[in-house]
Every structure is written in C-alpha cells, then in structure tokens.
Amino acid sequence: RLETEGVAVEASAATEAVPAKVVAAQVLPTEVHSLRLVIRSTHGHRTRVGLTNLSLVDSAGVVIPIDPELDVEVEGLDPSGPAWQAAITPMFNGVTATCSPDDMWLGWLMSGFEPHVEITISYAWTGQARQLVLHNYNASLKDSVKCVRGLQVWHDRELVWEGEVSEAKGNAVFPYQHVVELESDVSASYDS
User: Fold this and answer.
1) Residue 167: how many other CB atoms lie within 10 Å
2) Looking at beta carbons, which pairs linking 68-75 to residues 24 or more positions away fall under 8 Å?
C-alpha cells in the first residue's frame, strides 16, 4: 500500500492511481558519473601531496554527497607509506576553514618518480556535477609545498581542465579554494 496526500492506494494499482508528480519523485533516473583527478606535481615537496577538501556541486548549487569508503579510489601512492594515508575521509568531511592536519588528507609519493596520483570518484546523482571545488593542503605556510600543483580533471572520460592549482596559505581566514567548471573545454578522452 502507498499513501500520498492522505489517499491509500494498493501497490498493484499504484502506478495508475498515484499522481504523476509522486511517481516521478519516486523514480527519478539516477546516472553514475565519474570524476578522475590526476595529480602531476606538488608545489615542491618530493615525497608528500595533500588536499584539505573536495566537493562536487550540481547546477542547483547542491553539494553532491560522496561516501569516501564506497565512492573513492586513490592510486599511485607509495605502498610503504603509513597505513593512514589511505584514510581519505577527511578530504570529504566538508571542513574547509581549517589548518588542522587531522581535517586533511596527506599521501606519500613514490620516491624516484614524478608524482602521478589518481583520485577517482564515482557518484550517482539525478543530474550531473557542474563544479569541482578543491581546497588545497592548508596545514601551514611551511607545508604549502605539499599542495597539489599540476592537475588534470577528467569528467565522464573527458578532460575538462588541466593546469596549475594555487597553493594554500596555511591559515583558516583567507579563501583558498580552486573551482573547476566541469564542462569540457579541452579536447581529449581516455578509455577505462
């Protein structure tokens, strides 16, 4: 039995008897999208790279929920680094005005190689993300060398942005976010 606007309807007749707006709300199409960040360089640190926060925002300005344990995969880190580097939860906790390393993600880079860390986010949403809002590693001015610098952003297998991200300034007062519009202006693609 379904009940809407005070009217009970048997489930077998639900699609005929329930008003269209209710059926539509219950069966909104959800598409699975992917966002892939390829970290190509830091602001100078040879063995560490970090981020404070990543957020995906849809066209209505809604932050798309991301479950870091289910929706996010990180590749290219040094496997001999500490086990906690895999704990990416702080990157999705919504805390942006902070200098506390506990609210940030820090990964160990493979020594002897140029950085090539990939963060892949799979998200299911009724629309599509319009923006990626990235907050670089913000523990301190001294630690700004651990910030992401060279970055590629791929959205649904299309390269939508490539460039340099400014370093954070190590304080919780000045804004330090970098916004990437997720509409392709670069012609490239990759095969999964």
Assistant:
1) 21
2) 68/92, 71/121, 71/122, 71/123, 72/119, 72/120, 72/121, 72/122, 73/118, 73/119, 73/120, 74/107, 74/117, 74/118, 74/119, 74/120, 75/117, 75/118, 75/120
Determine contact, residues 148/134, Cβ cutoff 8 Å.
yes
115-136 residue pLDDT tens: 899 999 999 988 789 999 999 9
Mean pLDDT, rounded, of the chain: 81
Strand order in the sheet with 150-155: 72-75, 117-125, 31-39, 150-155, 158-164
Parallel, antiparallel or unpaired: strands 31-39 and 7-9? unpaired
Choice between 21 and 153, residue whose per-residue pLDDT is larger: 153
| Structure tokens given for 98 | 């902070």
